[in-house]
Write a structure and sequence with these properties.
alpha+beta, 4-stranded antiparallel β-sheet, 3 helices, 38% helix, 32% strand, globular
Amino acid sequence: MPALWIAHVTVSDDAAYGKYAALATKAIADHGGVFIARGGRYVQLEGKERPRNVVARFPSVEAAETCYHSDLYQEALGHARGASERELLIVETTD
């Protein structure tokens, strides 16, 4: 089953986060991920508001999880730490 990688982010260092985004984009694509929402307009209805929201579709939960643990994504994540506050989850779709 396909899966969605959903991130809610508050960026505090645009330059460092830009380095994260460049590397993460490649890692996600390398693992079959396709962005379906990336920082667009949103309406916060419940919970903690994060101004950047990203959703990528992967072929499976396993592909998304493998991406997260990949060397390239972990390198990218090094730029995001200290440059953002984030929540990230992977959820299987009903497709």
